[in-house]
Amino acid sequence: MRLLLDTHVLLWWLADDPNLGEEARAGISDPDSTVYVSAATVWEISIKRALGKLEAPSDLLRQIGLSRFESLSMKASHAHTAGALPRHHDDPFDRMLVAQAMIEDLTLLTRDPRMGLYGVGVLTV
Q1: pTM
Q2: Within a 10 A sphere around the Cβ of 33, how many other Cβ atoms?
Q3: Which of 51, 68, 71, 120 is the most buried (most CB within 10 A)?
């Protein structure tokens, strides 16, 4: 399985938070899965952490690496697609994740039911 983690899913994984459901946890830990973390997610966490709106590891990149997650860069095609999406969701970080999941053929792990409105593969946590 090729998975893209939404921001809260990444943070729950890193904190071993019980909010992360068993199906999502199994998908992430499956050795046959390739798990991606978007640059948009790292950007969002960094911004919200700096504003004091979010607690996250100070060594976030190291933690992502230790979890053996792949980095997913943002491309112009991702940005173009995100900007053209219907207005189901106004959060620019979430719209970027949807666009990346669409273009890269990834399943998005999220708790946000609005993400599925775009027709992208979603695994609800």
Answers
A1: 0.94
A2: 14
A3: 120
